[in-house]
């Protein structure tokens, strides 16, 4: 299956817009220590104590790494997380941390060893090395017979050629699937036909048939369209908040730093209370239009905006810790976080929990911000009266 020209150009424009917002940046976290065993390879944290550098040693990078260019090649070891925006990406060394990639073509070469998760959104992805967890949205994904997924794979797209072994579970949604190697855990997949031999899967197999080519194509395009829509809406929200109302962005940061528990409480209350209020208003004659307006705004906020609302304060906290609290850097990290949240939301079961938590936190930040403003106004009024 091929992407339409319109979709390709739209994705290209988004990438260009992102790249124009920030210059090439390289730094990272010295506190992240290498992990050499599978049991130790958990998600690499982003530390609060960070020393930065503007140059990359060809021998070793001991910091989190941020790169964007037409073509990016990492043939040196990295101890930290890696964020990449590029057209072509080649990785051919050890990375102790998570890797986040938005690109056209991605090659994980034979000497590559990614100790944590690889999150990738690209048209073509080829894996000839080792990856612990893979989360992929791509037109064509190829895992060669030399490639290894050391834990789980969660992927969707047009075509999958899985010739390398998967050590644990596989969750797949592709129009065409070819599996010629072993899957040691459970397999859950959707495809045009039941094409995976049960002998290759040590665990349980769950299959859902795509009834037609058009429906299969629509399923893949739905994922890509959803990501494109999220990126466009989130970019607009991020640009407006960071550039036009920076005081609100700073307020979000303070709330997340100092009032996490109250904001989660407000978010949980708002998540339940707003639909109830809409229902009560809907039962009255004069309240039908207000109820519909509030409900539409509520749904738009939950479905389209919360990822950006949550991403902005997290990115500002991170940028502050690394002493790079610029608007361009905040925008770049916020967009990357939106992509990460979207990828995590595609994981079966876990994705629903993540979506709920993001919705509660986003609503909580907004609710606490409004309530806190009212409190401040009341306090000022009381002081003035005295």
What does this structure look like?
The chain is α/β, with parallel strands linked by helices. It folds into two domains: 5-214, no CATH class; 230-373, no CATH class. 45% of the residues lie in helices and 26% in strands. It is built from seven helices and 16 strands. The strands form two sheets. Strands 3, 4, 5, 6, 7, 8, 9, 10, 11, 12, 13, 14, 15 and 16 form a 14-stranded parallel beta sheet that branches. A two-stranded antiparallel ribbon has the order 1-2. Helix 3 packs across helix 7, helix 5 crosses helix 6 and helix 5 (288-321) packs across helix 7. The longest helix has 36 residues, at 350-385. The chain is globular and about 65 Å long. 40% of the residues are buried.
Question: What topology does this entry show?
Answer:
Elements: H1 5-21, E1 27-28, E2 51-52, E3 65-74, E4 78-79, E5 82-91, E6 94-96, E7 99-102, E8 105-108, E9 113-127, E10 130-143, E11 148-149, E12 153-162, E13 165-166, E14 170-179, E15 187-191, E16 205-209, H2 213-244, H3 246-258, H4 260-282, H5 288-321, H6 327-345, H7 350-385
Parallel strand pairs: 3-5, 4-6, 5-7, 5-8, 6-9, 7-9, 8-9, 9-10, 10-11, 10-12, 11-13, 12-14, 14-15, 15-16
Antiparallel strand pairs: 1-2
Helix pairs in contact: 1-2, 2-3, 2-5, 2-6, 3-5, 3-7, 4-5, 4-7, 5-6, 5-7, 6-7
Please give a quick description of this structure:
The chain is of the alpha/beta class and 386 residues long.
Features of the shown structure:
single chain; 2 domains; 14-stranded parallel sheet; two-stranded antiparallel ribbon; 7 helices; 16 strands; disordered C terminus
